[in-house]
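Exercise 7.
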Amino acid sequence: MGDVAKDLAAGTVGGAAQLICGHPFDTIKVKLQSQPAPLPGQLPKYSGAFDAVKQTLAAEGPRGLYKGMGAPLATVAAFNAVLFTVRGQMETLVRSHPGAPLTVNEQVVCGAGAGVSVSILACPTELIKCRLQAQSALAGSGTATVAVKYGGPMDVARHVLRSEGGMRGLFKGLVPTMGREIPGNAIMFGVYEALKQKFAGGTDTSGLSRGSLIVAGGLAGASFWFFVYPTDVIKSVIQVDDYRNPKFSGSFDAFRKIRASEGLKGLYKGFGPAMARSVPANAACFLAYEMTRSALG
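Solution. The predicted structure, written as tokens, is:
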């Protein structure tokens, strides 16, 4: 089996592990991000992450925490296969000679290159996922988008293609998606490599224990969200915005309006669930990837 096929297979397994561990946290994150700002004198729909969990379980049951999972599950193989395969090919390009270990800076470059590729796939997938996750959070806001009750991922895709500009509608939010994926993956893979080399005491990280890989993967994932989280908030509000009566004209407009109405804290709505998700989800992803890649030789 060639290196590309090995990265494809290992990336697929890693992505599945990440999704299963992290999706409930992601659902709460999106609900908090997309709930409308309360009117003066009114309380927000959710007072925080635990309240969002409680209301979701009461209204929708445990299945509500996995709402919108169909879209990423259907594409998780492609997403993570692309991410790890492009990263692997970038590693081949930047190596000084075959088999040479990469520096942390070189892994940053590889991560950024992988981020460019996955942005194209992530944007429509994220739009579908966010629409499904945000429905209950936006209920009662009176927007046309929320008035549509989506039956599932394919229903969202059909509605967007039919009523929101065709294929262009599925790529709404591409700019902030790239603003998240490119620097986020650059940071994540750089931190992951730096921690592995730290734990290994050198550039040969092949003998690291599973515990070390779990810690490195979890902290690397946390670094992704820590540095790019406001961009993710902007992406989410744009992707669930009403097509016919939009609140935001673009990414910079969304940034200005969120900051004006909610302050800087508005750019960090859902930050707690995102960070809580990032550690176990990415620990599972990197561990599953490394174990599968090692098993394949």
